[in-house]
Design a protein that fits this description.
This protein is of the alpha+beta class. The protein has helices spanning 2-80, 85-98, 131-142, 188-197, 199-212, and strands at residues 103-113, 148-151, 154-155, 162-165, 168-171, 174-176, 180-185, 215-226. It has five helices and eight strands; from the N terminus they run ααβαββββββααβ.
């Protein structure tokens, strides 16, 4: 009887040992899974962003191709229908104004860049260029009557948005990074006067640039070529010519 009791106790202890081992293995497996889960989700998000950006570039190429085909059809129609000549000329002028065609001329090159160094224990936000800094420059340039503007190869149009997205800036839903090259076509003296008379730009180019090591340079350029806007143009409010 004693032998059976001892055997039962040994079996019971062995059962508890195995149960404890299983619980311990399950605990550490869950812990390891949770520890690796954020990295997995982060990588999945990065992959999704890359796929969306690749798809966006493909769509931009398709839009550019379709616009070229439209231009070709318009020219063919103008060659056979003299009555459409004025329409084609007006359409071309409207496209240039809207930024839908490439533009070449004299103007300015404005460079904005983050500070090359970041002092210890300082606020890092003071040493980088922000989206509102780009909007400050554009706001000042508008007063100088520019014919066209582009930032890091992105043409600025009426529907352009400039916003911060983490550590980068989005222009026309395209990520750009420092240095920021702003090319503007227009009367050089009037553009420079507009920059000089704008208080916000002067604060950026003098006070902030000197205090935090930011780069703010303005140069004259005798030949600048701005790319056409490659995004989608949405017409939210439109009326026919005879509509009141």
């Amino acid at each position: 009887m004693v032998f059976k009791t001892e055997k039962a106790q040994i079996s019971l202890l062995a059962g508890f040992f195995i149960l404890g081992l299983l619980l311990s293995t399950s605990f550490y497996s869950q812990k390891e899974f949770k520890r690796n889960l954020p990295d997995y989700r982060k990588q999945t998000l990065v992959d999704s962003i890359k796929e969306l950006e690749a798809e966006k570039e493909t769509l931009k190429s398709s839009i550019a191709l379709l616009r070229k085909r439209v231009d070709l059809y318009e020219k063919e129609a103008a060659a056979t229908e003299g009555s459409l000549t004025s329409f084609i000329n007006e359409s071309k002028a409207l496209k240039e104004t809207a930024g839908l065609t490439e533009l070449t001329g004299k103007g300015l090159e404005i460079t904005l860049a983050d500070s090359p160094t970041l002092p210890e224990f300082e606020n890092p936000n003071n040493y980088i260029i922000h989206d509102y800094d780009l909007r400050t420059v554009l706001g000042a340039l508008i007063k100088g009557g520019p014919k066209g503007v582009a930032i890091n190869g992105e043409r600025i149009v009426e529907t352009t948005s400039i916003r911060c997205a983490g550590s980068t800036i989005m222009v026309n839903s395209t990520r750009i990074s420092t240095p920021y090259l702003i090319y503007v076509i227009g009367h050089q003296e009037r553009l420079r006067e507009a920059l000089a008379e704008d208080p916000a730009f002067q604060q950026l180019s003098t006070d902030y640039a000197e205090s935090f090591g930011l780069t703010v340079n303005v140069k004259n350029r005798n030949k600048i070529t701005l790319p056409s806007f490659e995004g989608r143009v949405l017409l939210e409010h439109a009326k026919s010519k005879g509509e009141v």
